[in-house]
Amino acid sequence: MAIRQEIYRITFLNKGKVYEIFARQVYQSELYGFIEVEEFLFDERSQMLVDPSEEKLKMEFQDVKRSFIPLQAILRIDEVEKTGVAKISSGDNIMPFPLPAFGTRNSGNTGNES
Fold first, then answer.
1. pTM (2 decimals)?
2. What is the pLDDT of residues 21-60, one digit of tens each?
3. 42 contacts: CB under 8 Å, gap ≥ 6
4. Complete DSSP assignment for 14-64
5. Are 14 and 86 in contact (CB under 8 A)?
6. Residue ranges per domain, the chain?
7. What is the pLDDT of residue 42?
8. Nearest-CA neighbor of 21 among 66, 5, 92, 93?
């Protein structure tokens, strides 16, 4: 019986472009506000056809053991059945939603005190 290993597709914004990568490990980092991504996967099935954006991603992540991606840059994380083609696409129509760096503090004032 084969042990099933999860594969995740992570879509995020980086330098104004949308990155779509695949990895085996995705989890919340100990660094506040970051997601950690490990064990990057690239589609090895398409050896005959070379996709320039996938080759660029392979070069960018070739020596990377672990990547820390800011939470506000994450667009989506999906668990998928198999690895697809990693790619970089234009992020012209996507704008990250601004998030506060720290949670708001509730001082307990309700405005009803005299």
1. 0.70
2. 999 999 999 999 999 999 998 876 655 666 677 778 888 8
3. 22, 54, 57, 58, 83, 86
4. ETTEEEEEEEEEEEE-SSTTEEEEEEEE---S-SSS--HHHHHHHHHHTT-
5. no
6. 7-90
7. 80
8. 66
